[in-house]
Amino acid sequence: LCPLTEIYLLYAKLEMEHGMARHAMAVYDRATRAVLPEQQYEMLNIYIKQAALVYGVTHTRSIYEKAIEILPNDQAREMCLRFADLEKKLGEIDRARAIYAHGSQISDPRVAPQFWESWKEFEINHGNEDTVREMLRIKRSVQATYNTQVNFMSAQMVAAQNKKNDIGSLEGDEMQQLEARARQLARESLQEKAQAEKKLLFVRGSNTEEELGDLTKTNNPEEINIDDEEDGSDDDEEVEEMEVQQQNIPSQVFGGLQHSHGAGADDDDDD
What we know:
Blueprint: H1 3-18, H2 21-34, H3 37-55, H4 61-70, H5 73-89, H6 93-104, H7 113-126, H8 129-199, H9 209-216, H10 226-237, H11 256-270
């Protein structure tokens, strides 16, 4: 026993010898909830034994019910058999049959054949044809339920394994697709780089600035050649130098202007 269990037992013994019995029962009840799970079955057996000694076997019914509720299936099945045997000794056949029916829900016929054998023997000794038939019907129902559960669990396990395999295959496919995509992008990048290099115009270093200017010129059919027009206008504006001969102007051209001018000239002479 663990130290905690021993403390509870010593405490309950102290209450039994120097205190009150109901205080000792309260200590046993607390111990069944406080001890480790692996110690619960043993503590419940001690609690049942002490309760039967102090209050009688009928007081142990609540303890059996509690034990069947909190214990694992194997230990709870054992408590069901002991509880049913107690009710059978007390002459409570119906109560014992109800306990067998309750325990059957946690008793797979393939795992716990001794439980069903004990119930069958009980029905043969204390039942009739109808009760035996009902017992067999419950047995088939429980077996079908466990078969369904087993099949369902197997299907879940298979599905989980298949899902795991599918996830693994999907991850592998995704990695392959990513690698293929990366290779494709690399090829496209190399092709674009090669095409860009082909489009570059390479000029020899010996070319003069005029040659470079000619290379960069673009042919525009709508462009107006201003230089040609300016050259032509300069030719039109050029004037040939000619020798000018002086000739006498006839007197009729001037008319009276000549006479007035001549008179003024005479006056000046007289002065």
